[in-house]
Amino acid sequence: MNLEDLLISLDSSGKKSLEDSDIDSDSLSSQIERKKLESKRYESDTKDRKWLAIWTATIVSLWLLCVILILVKNESSKLDLSDTVLVTLLGTTTLNVLGLPYIVLKGHFASSSRDI
Description:
Blueprint: H1 3-12, H2 28-75, H3 83-109
Helix pairs in contact: 2-3
């Protein structure tokens, strides 16, 4: 089997031929436009990722601070919460501390090859 037979078999099987995947077959202006769009997308993704990282860290920190304040006030007998309430509070806090960053940041920091 020579190269021509291979190309013919690829064309007939419905797959792209080697000529179709050649980036040089696109016009120069479309290649430049594609690069500009990719650059804008990466710039936007970078800004969004920075903002989401700061937002997530802030929300988790504030939530932990509130829980610590509740526990301290309860210890000083100002709130008098039952053990069941405290266990529920600590359980949901643990889930929030682990879950919020995972849910928010997983989708945005996932590496994917999106088309423009």
